Amino acid sequence: MRPILLPILRRLLILSVISIVAVLLVSELSYRLLREDSSRAPKTISLIIPKGTAEKIAQGQSEPSIPEDMVFVVGDTLFVENKDVVDHQLGPLWIPAGKTASLLMGKVSNYAYSCSFRPSQYLGIIIREPVTWSSRLGAVAVSAPPTIVFLLVYSLVARPIKPVGISVPSSQRVGRA
Amino acid sequence: MKRSHLFFFGSIALFAIVFAVGVMVQPKNSPLNGSLIQPTSSADDFQLTDQNGNAYRLSAQQGKLVLLFFGYTHCPDVCPMTLAQFRNIKASLKEQAKNVEFVFVTVDPAQDSLSRMKEYVDAFDPQFIGLTGTQLELEQVWKDYGVYQEKKADGASNNSVDHSARIYLIDRQGKLLLTYPSGFETDQIVQDIRSLLVSSRS
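YS: structure for the whole thing
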């Protein structure tokens, strides 16, 4: 290998480690400052519609405790079991009586759906990007390479590497008398 | 091994690890995208009249996937959008579309006559099925499929009907398997249909 490459590779390796650590720190700091409900891994969210729900709603009695807006992360599965004797609708799901329905929340979005549980007939569904260990590592993987390249270029400009082991004979040196 | 080689391969390995982590964290797809209904059971059967005046019985379609949608021909928004989506699904499926039936059932039998239904459905695709029937026949179908429909009495227009907008997918064995809310991604529906056509062939 040519002598000039050795110090460049050594510098590249050192800067790679520095960059990954720096990116990791910035990513972790911003995560701590900005994290919300979506800072969790996708999971299955199960709901049961009890028997007699439709009758209770028709009589104006209290509805099952479901928030006005349901917040999901991409990859969540909404699983609803309808134990009532009539069909129900819960946001994007239609659940026939005595059956279950499930839906994978596949992309980031905000929806307004009808809901047979509510006098307002409204249910908001908010789907956010999940922030998980893997997505945080993914962010580091995406941002580390350009940081390494940037630091390497900067360091080569700021502190150029001099070739090692090439000496110029005194007889060939050009200097002012 | 020379130190220079060690640095060279070390750098490459470090880059490879960083990129591999990025690739590994990509989300994985679920087998079916629509809302899965379980336990599956036979879709409620019905017999209505298609846009050509022929009797159409759902249970006679076994062997084909059926995409079912409830709407009305004077609908200004969700119905034409859904039929346009049906057309896109059919185009995406290409040769496989011969195993899929696209069915539109009216929620407004008073205005959706056979001739009106034919004109409307044919404008999207003459192979689509447009179904109508008597109020009594349709009320049973709406009930079986949990279809909400209510004529608007605002006086501004007597054509307007509020209705649920959901696509139902009935598999080749005649079982009601999936539903899709309005606005569901066309590509994901196509993906489900392809997956079901392949799995039911084997």
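YS: worth flagging: Chain B is about 35% helix and 25% strand.
IM: good catch. Also The beta strands of chain B are 35-38, 47-50, 55-57, 65-71, 100-106, 129-132, 149-151, 161-163, 166-170, 176-181.
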